[in-house]
Amino acid sequence: MTHQLPILNYDFNALEPYIDKLTMEIHYGKHHQTYVTNLNNALEGHADLAAKPLVDLLANLDAIPEKIRTAVRNNGGGHLNHTLFWDIIKPSKDVTKPSSKLVEAINQAFGNYENFEKEFTAAAVSRFGSGWAWLIIDEKGELKVTSTPNQDNPIMDGKIAILGLDVWEHAYYLNYQNRRADYISNFFKIINWDIVSEKFEINN
């Protein structure tokens, strides 16, 4: 299996003004492509591993030969994280709301949607350096907000991510410079809740 960039469901400029065209071109075409290329290079000569789904590789990193484990972790994580990210955002004019089942779960986990948004924002703002903020389904099937460093994905700890926000500087710096909080606030205006709701219901 040769890992490839996913096909975007929107044009590079479709997320403006919240994510600008140039950032999308670089983020998708350069950064994400590099993760894909490096992952394929790491798996070269390991046909058994290359044939496995990416989530299986990342959920069982201890089974990866030590020589390529870090490369698979970093680049496989980068590929999986970005693939999810492109999927769960969409042009603001097309944004809908979470499904009734997801709203119910959010209310149960956080009290209400506003509390969820505050907790997610706090996780994204407080992630030191590079990393991600997540809405995940834990081992008990409950929603939690968490964050991870670098390109780590919650699947590495047995959890399922249904919403993720890239807070590496390359994701926002051209447009927002050091204003990460503004970038995070605008993220909520382009969430593809149809996909997030679908991921939640598939895993519950």
TrEMBL record:
Domain Manganese/iron superoxide dismutase N-terminal: 2-89
The protein's required cofactors: Mn(2+)
Keywords noted in UniProt: Metal-binding, Oxidoreductase
Short name of any one Pfam family annotated for the protein: Sod_Fe_N
Recorded catalytic activity of this chain's protein: 2 superoxide + 2 H(+) = H2O2 + O2
Residue span, Manganese/iron superoxide dismutase C-terminal domain: 98-198
EC nos: 1.15.1.1
GO terms, molecular function: superoxide dismutase activity
Function comment: Destroys radicals which are normally produced within the cells and which are toxic to biological systems.
Family: Belongs to the iron/manganese superoxide dismutase family.
The name this protein goes by in its record: Superoxide dismutase
Organism: Paenibacillus provencensis
